Each structure stands twice: as structure tokens, then as C-alpha cells.
Amino acid sequence: MSSPDIIKDFPRVSPEDVAQASQYQPAIFSDIAGRRGALHGRIQALRPRMKVAGPAFTVEVRPGDNLMIHAAMSLAKPGDVLVVDGKGDQTSALMGTIMMTAARQLGLAGVILDGAVRDSLEIDEMDFPVFSVGTNPNGPTKNNGGRIGHPISCGGVTVRAGDLVIGDGDGVVVVEREQLPGLLPLAAHKVQAEAKRIAAIKNGDTAAKWLTASLVAAGVLREGEVL
């Protein structure tokens, strides 16, 4: 028997893990997870100050149609982040002020769309975290089915319902739900290591210790040669 188009519930990253993860930049998680999980750079915060972290509530729509987003909003739980596979379409907006106001009222943590939005100035005033491929004043249709709660492709990355999505002015990173608890200690260590390195640089230790070996390995320098 095939699975239903709408999966109403699924395991989510825990609120405690989300709270811990939100202390770190998405870039930290990308680094410690093998430089994987970052959505394509076309998906950016509507305003650079916007940040979001929470379990993904996945939605797949036809380009320019937001019927399934409305359905998803009636099912999502407080703290969820709507993550919408809008096929990268920029010919019309999938969401605007009315839907964003409702999303905020429902307690959603934010919205990430591989598609466009509109009413950007009003969303800015709301200070509700929205990530999209840009804006378009054209409105959507509400005619076509899609899927909710299934794995989607958003910004070229697989996103499963319940995975952690975390975003800031750099962009958005997805962390698999099962991997997150083991990555949190690595994130803390990475932040400490970077702080130590920055302090050393400010004290004059600017040389990259790994550079010569990497240049030799790349064939740019001969063995024993230095810059």
C-alpha cells in the first residue's frame, strides 16, 4: 500500500536539542558534518538579522501554488519550521503577510521556501524569520495537490520531516535528526577552537600551520620548498 500524500505526524528533534543548537551558527554545523547540509545560496534570509532553528515540517508544492502550504499550517506544531520545496520558482510568491501572520500566531519558528515571497516590508516589520529565493509581487494559485511530511529537496539538499533546520544571514543548514545529539558536543568544541585561533591571530600568530603541506600535496610547491 502506498503512503498517504499527507503524513500528519513524525519524530522531531527535541526542544532541548533545538535550544542547544540555536546557540551555534549554521556554518559550525556544516563544518562538523563534513561540509554537508547547506542549502543552495539562492535561499537567503529575507533580512540578514533573521535567525531560525527548529524541526522541519516539510511541504512539496507545484511551482507557484500554495494549496499544500495552507494545509501544512493547519497541521504544524508550535516550534516547527515550514520547509517548502517550491522548485526554486520565482515567478510568483508562495506566501505573504496574511500567511506569515498566521504562521507567527500559530507559534511556528519560521519559514524556509525554495520559492518566492511577497510583502517583504511588512514581514520585516513583523520580525518573523523568513528564508526564500527572493520576492515577487505576483500571487500564487491554490489548485494543485502536493505532499506534506515526506522527504523533500530544498535548495538541493534532502530535508526529512523532523530534521533540524537552522538558518542565519549566511543561509540554512539541515542536520539529520538522529545525528544532532552527537554533533552538539562537536559544535561546542569547534566554537572553542575557533575562539582560541582568533585570539592567537590577534596576538600576531597569523601563519596557517597547514598551508605548506597542503601546497606540497597540491603540487604547487616541491617537497622541502617553502613560500
Automatic annotation (TrEMBL):
This is Putative 4-hydroxy-4-methyl-2-oxoglutarate aldolase. The lineage of its organism: Bacteria, Pseudomonadati, Pseudomonadota, Betaproteobacteria, Burkholderiales. It holds the Pfam family RraA-like. SUPFAM superfamilies: RraA-like (SSF89562). Its cofactor is a divalent metal cation. Gene3D superfamilies: Ribonuclease E inhibitor RraA/RraA-like. InterPro entries: RraA/RraA-like (IPR005493), RraA/RraA-like_sf (IPR036704). Transmembrane segments: none annotated.
